[in-house]
Design a protein that fits this description.
By secondary structure, the protein is an all-alpha fold. The protein has one domain: MetI-like fold (Orthogonal Bundle), CATH 1.10.3720. About 75% of the residues lie in helices and about 0% in strands. The protein has a two-stranded antiparallel sheet. Helix 1 crosses helix 12 (about 265-295) and helix 7 runs antiparallel to helix 10 (about 230-240). The longest helix has about 35 residues, at about 1-35. About 25% of the residues are buried.
Length: about 300
């Protein structure tokens, strides 16, 4: 009887575990297996086991392009997250003002970029804003007497253009999370601080930030993961059907995609995917430990 009781939860969980194994675990294991071979377009069925050669090529050879893509990805993630959190914080502070009218209207309008499908947003910015001939930005520049700028032709303008679009799409979520965290803080803390002569910055540093840190930490971590593995913005803005728009901007995700579906080097692409997987796992372990310690404190 006891054995049946022990087996019952497993029997109920078995369908879900099988599905998880097929959809998540098996692809990871198979990708790891391919990463140890020379599988490519010319060695599709007669590929050979080559050990860690793909990993050494990605990590140790400067001409492989992976380290440059990794640096770009880390820079992309860091800048996006810092700007996103800071800008969202001050906008959310503005929503906390009691004399601000039309808060519901502003918050409703703010949700449109986040709710809009990513492909539609990217197409809108690529054609309607960044286009050299009839984009909004170039029309403004020409009206002011400046020349036209191809925002997607070189790496630095393309990087900034992609980052601006990512901020436009991601800011609403972060603003709403921070706004909710700010609303949960007891107003009496601020009243006591004002009686002690605390100013704007003092109240934010000593009351607001410590009080909301544990609440928004999961949102920041989740957004960091999403930003790190961002693909559609960089790919659809700077590349089209495998061809470059002029910029050679590469993140680790677009690097893996190009090696798999353009260069058809499946072994190298799989090795890069496994490296990305372990980087995300390590970051996840550190952040989860940090969140647990914060909650215990």
């Amino acid at each position: 009887m006891k054995n049946k009781r022990k087996l019952t939860p497993w029997l109920y969980s078995m369908p879900a575990l099988i599905l998880i194994g097929m959809v998540i675990v098996f692809p990871i294991i198979y990708t790891g297996y391919i990463s140890l071979t020379n599988m490519n377009l010319f060695h599709w069925s007669n590929y050979k086991f080559i050990g860690l050669s793909n990993y050494s090529r990605a990590l140790l050879k400067a001409d492989s392009g992976f380290l440059g893509a990794l640096f770009t990805t880390l820079l992309w993630t860091t800048l996006n997250m810092v700007i996103q959190v800071v800008v969202a914080y001050f906008i959310a502070l503005g929503f906390q003002r009691e004399d601000l009218k039309g808060k519901r209207v502003y918050k409703t309008l703010l949700m449109f970029p986040w709710a809009m499908p990513a492909y539609v947003s990217i197409l809108l910015w690529r054609v309607g804003i960044y286009n050299t001939e009839f984009g909004l930005l170039n029309k403004i520049l020409v009206a002011l007497g400046f020349g036209k700028v191809n925002f997607l032709s070189t790496n630095v303008p393309a990087f900034l253009s992609c980052m601006t679009l990512n901020l436009w799409m991601a800011l609403p979520f972060m603003i709403m999370m921070i706004d909710g965290a700010l609303s949960s803080i007891d107003r009496s803390y601020y009243e006591s601080a004002e009686l002690d002569g605390a100013g704007f910055w003092s109240k934010n540093i000593h009351i607001t930030v410590p009080a909301m840190k544990g609440i928004i930490a999961p949102a920041v971590i989740m957004t960091t993961f999403t930003t790190f593995k961002q693909f559609d913005i960089v790919y659809l803005l700077t590349m089209q059907k495998g061809a470059y728009s002029g910029a050679t901007l590469q993140t680790v995700i677009t690097y893996a995609q190009q090696n798999a579906f353009v260069s058809n080097n499946y072994g190298l692409s799989s090795a890069v995917s496994i490296i990305i997987f372990f980087l995300i796992m390590v970051f996840s372990l550190f952040t989860n430990r940090g969140v647990k310690e914060e909650n215990y404190d």
